[in-house]
Amino acid sequence: MKKTMVILMVLGAALAGCKKTSSTEATETVVNDPAGVYTLVTVDGVKIPGTFSHGKRKVMLHSGSFIINADNTCVSKTVFGSQKIARQVKATYTQDGSTLNMQWIGAGRTRGTIKGDTFTMNNEGMIFSYKKQP
User: Is the dihedral of CA 81, 84, 90, 94 positive or negative?
Assistant: First the structure.
């Protein structure tokens, strides 16, 4: 139980953006409408579902989605751990071309970029990549 709580705290902090992180590679593409549902496909290059490392901890991530709404809000949903624990966090965002600057409710900031149908964000040094659903 203790190990599960530690993993939850690590993943929760990572997904909620507890501190400012470096941005993903900037692109010159202007994204007129980023709204949509994006499905998590990799974390640090590891296909989802899969196990990845964050610090000294290994985390099993079963699935994830990132919903970008037209009203400048977004929601990150993940299912992780051996007991398939669901976690949802919300943010508001501002858009600058292909870059979204997210302010997480009760937490820090994260920056992400959209290129084509891919949304990528660098959070706590972990690279989350999502594909937009049709």
Answer: positive
Q: How far is CA 28 from CA 21, 75, 100, 102, in A?
A: 21, 25, 13, 19
- The one-letter amino acid code at 130 reads Y
pLDDT at 11: 52
pTM of the model: 0.77
- What is residue 48's DSSP assignment? S
Per-residue pLDDT, averaged over 5-16, amounts to 45
Residue ranges of domains in the chain, CATH in brackets: 2-132 (2.40.128.280)
Contact predicate 109/102, CB 8 Å: yes
| Cα(62)–Cα(76) distance, integer angstroms | 14
- φ/ψ of residue 121, rounded to 5: -135, 145
Q: Which residues of 79-118 are buried (b: 16+ CB within 10 A; e: fewer)?
A: bbbeeeeebebbbebebeebbbebebeebbbbbbbbeeee
Assess whether the previous peptide bond of 34 is cis (omega < 30° from 0). Answer: no
